[in-house]
Amino acid sequence: MRKSDRPRKLTAKGMENLSGNVGIVMQALIREVRDETMKQMAKAQQETVKEITTSHERIIETLWNAWKKEQQALKQMIEGQEKAIMQLQQDIQGIQAQAAQERKLMQEQIDELKRMQQHATRDIEPLQVQASEEIKRIHEKLDIMAQHAVAGSARTNPRQSFADIARMSPTEGQNGGVRGPEVM
User: Fold this and answer.
1) Which of 5, 101, 164, 179 could form a disulfide with 160 if both were Cys (CB 3.0 to 4.6 A apart)?
2) Which ranges form a coiled coil (predicted)?
3) pTM, entire model
4) Among candidate residues 149, 174, 147, 175, the one with its CA nearest the CA of residue 160
5) Domain ranges of the chain
């Protein structure tokens, strides 16, 4: 056995040295444990951050894709509405043009009807005057005939009926001659 392998006797000075050495070893051990713990904590924190970041990235990507789809759907809807609006505007313009043509045609027809009414009024006025005069003459003749018939029948035959008088020709009433009823 060698001298160095044998256990030594601890002296006060040796105890101090030993406790100093143990303190240094303990400090080194504590530092190593602390460093290792820090490394593991940093690694765990990095992994957690990486997991959270990955999770957030997935969520953001999902939201982004959903937003893009929504934007695309809105864009298509807006384009569809724009097309519908343009079609409606064209339809309205067509209807307005057609209405303008129909108004113009109606105005032309109204003007033509007014002209026709004026011509008809001009043409009818003389006919109305002529018809009125003719009706007046007929009334006058009828009045004269009725007077002669009544006067003639009273002189010739007081028993003649109104029907007999009405059937008489105007000359009979004036001549006072009584003939039988006329056959028609």
Assistant:
1) 164
2) 71-123
3) 0.39
4) 149
5) 18-175
